[in-house]
Amino acid sequence: MGKDWKGNIDSWKITSREMKMVWDSMSRAKVSESARIFTIINNCKETIWPGVTPGGNFNGGGFELKQGQSMVFTAPVGWVGRIWGRTGCNFDKNGKGSCQTGACGSSLKCTASGKTPASLAEFTLAALDYYDVSLVDGFNLPILITPLHGSGNCSIAGCDGDLRTQCPSELAAKANGNVVACRSACDVFNTDEYCCRGVFGNPVTCQPTYYSKKFKSVCPTAYSYAYDDPTSIFTCSGTDYVVAFCSSRNQPVCTYHNNRLVCNESKGSKSSDERWWSLILASMLAVNYLYWTIS
After folding, report:
1. DSSP states of 109-161 as a string?
2. What is the distance, to the nearest Å, from the Cα of residue 52 to the centroid of all Cα atoms in its chain?
3. pTM of the entire structure?
4. pLDDT per residue over 110-141, tens digit each?
5. Which of 39, 140, 242, 262 would bridge with 101, disulfide CB 3.0–4.6 Å?
6. How far apart are CA 61 and CA 59, in angstroms?
7. Which keywords annotate this record (predicted)?
8. Rounded Cα distance, 230 and 146, in Å
9. Number of separate helices (H) and strands (E) present in the chain
């Protein structure tokens, strides 16, 4: 079960001796090769409450992530599930409350899928993993899936653009006068054409619409409608995953696997700022991983 790291970049410090202790502890940690490590990161400017179903391995299916925080979990091969972010939530000490977007009933810990509209990260873990980001049920947060150290296609899936700023007015979901999410055309109009059902229930007759093309223009590697498979679903073997909310596609991310640190490379040569950011991420992840393994 994951543990959250309660620090932030401005206040976090670690000595070389402490860093050595972290790496030594990490090298002794035994993580099954049949499991996938998930690092969930909140890079949004607001607190979010990720939901996960099924969530037995993910803190019971729901948790709070403040800006800059991350959580680390493992999921076994065979897990089929989804991860999404909830926004504008208010929960009491018993985990009961409400959210503006993505709510799974009135509970912090989700046992069912969230309410639309919500951006979804979807996974099927097997010898060959399948993963995607779906906006078929609408959009509420930018979300990226980055596989690390795997083999195969292993492309970044998802969206680092914010559809809320470009949402057609007829699809906009608002709270206090602000657009907090962008609904799907199916959700708004409920027609066979927009919902890919009835005579439109196959990939030949269900074609991109004005609205799905709008979604696709902002999020080219996310599902914009039900049969948007060719540019939206990806595969990778033996990988771990970073699921990042409100991150740039070129932003470095790191995970730890099989006794070694693994970070992705941003496109082009790394600037000194990027190298420093990778070091910070690696160190933060090390502390997070140590806390998670010994707690």
Report:
1. S-SSPPPSS--EEEEE-SSSEEEEEE-TT-BSS-EEEEEES-BSS---EEE-S
2. 10
3. 0.80
4. 999 999 999 999 999 999 999 999 999 999 99
5. 140
6. 6
7. Disulfide bond, Secreted
8. 18
9. 5, 16
